[in-house]
Amino acid sequence: MRIRTLVAATGALALSLVSGCAQGGAAGSSANTVTYWLWDANQLPAYQACAKGFEKENPGLKVKITQLGWSDYWTKLTAGFIAGTQPDVFTDHIQNFGQFADLKVLEPLDDLGIEDSDYQPGLAANWIGKDGHRYGAPKDWDTVALFYNSKMTQDAGLTAEQLNGLSWNPEDGGTFEKTIAHLTIDRNGKRGDEPGFDKNNVKVYGMASNGGGFGDGQTQWSNFAASAGWSYLDKPRWGTEYQYDSKTFQSVIRWYFGLAKKGYMPPLSDYNVQSNQANTQVAAGKAATAFDGAWMISTYAGFKGKDIKTALTPAGPTGKRATMMNGLADSVTKAAKNKAGARKWVAYLASDRCQTVVGRSGVVFPATPAGTEAAVAAYRKKGIDVSAFTEPLADKNRFRTFSYPIASYSADMTALMAPAMEDIYGNGKPVSSLDQTNDQINLILSQ
């Protein structure tokens, strides 16, 4: 589960005030135990199976796994860094990597022999710090696609071929906006592209809302901005300047949140990170489509009475389709009590021996090609087509894949961008207001 909240951001900020205070090792650690934390309950059985395989290969070593919900996970991890009760190994998110690396709470993993070519493109390189050291071993990856209610699209006369061939632009929205408008239905039965459509009384929105998107917009506006040629930073990794003041970016944001003004997407007031996310809106029949990540495949497939399918992200002004390709990693904490065991466990987690086991669970795409293939096969057995998520990796001529922004002070960026984007989406603030926000972020980044 990869829900974006400010919990991690504020936790990292708190950590920055007391960095270096932690002493001692991980709670529950010992010379023959490796403590490991993760947040996804759906993946727990697969990693329990990996632990059994690891323990068989390493007699005398035991793995103690703790699973926590997303918000509790980052809160307790941050508190653990401060109090010295952190685990030996934890599932790391690129959203927090910059902050953790700067605060020196991660153990270098240069001795693990992690090679870029052993994993899907870019996943290994993303976990190299500014100092040139490795702080994470690739774990899994995800991309974003368009989930859609096939009955609603069929009723609207739309085919799967049409949905996979959409394009957009920030001037009139292209065929994508036309499609979203046509899928929108007001309480009188009028579609969004028909005369008399009442945008203030919508029964079914053409596209669900996943909120303002913070500063990354992973399942909101990121694919549009990237397919327009925009990048978060001046460099792919460890950039020194954010580019939210870009005219290109601001034109994308103006158009994207303009869909809500037209009635094709719910207003911000309808969105709730706990109870009314995009998938909830689709499940309730309140939205026909939703951009969401690969980690949500099983969730959408499990909606009773609904046949949810997926389509590629729309092609943008550059002629390419785009999707964020995010990847998690396993990291060892600097104060881990059992560092030797932790290194062995992380190396095992990053190997095909574990990643094919995880892949066969059909919950996530593991980082190695063999692990990915196992996952695709597992989804196929369940009758789920995941090609909308895997195609972007296979065809770089048609697709642009890009990473979550990797830079220092990422928590500060999120803390500033979250309210800025919500002001634009929910309060009608002009997109030009991002100029000032961008200046504030870059001032912090320049320190």
Automatic annotation (TrEMBL):
It holds the Pfam family SBP_bac_1. The keyword Protein transport does not apply. CDD domains: PBP2_TMBP_like. InterPro entries: Bact_solute-bd_prot1, SBP. SUPFAM superfamilies: Periplasmic binding protein-like II. Residues 1-24 form the signal peptide. GO terms for cellular component: cell envelope. It is found in: Cell envelope. This is ABC transporter substrate-binding protein.
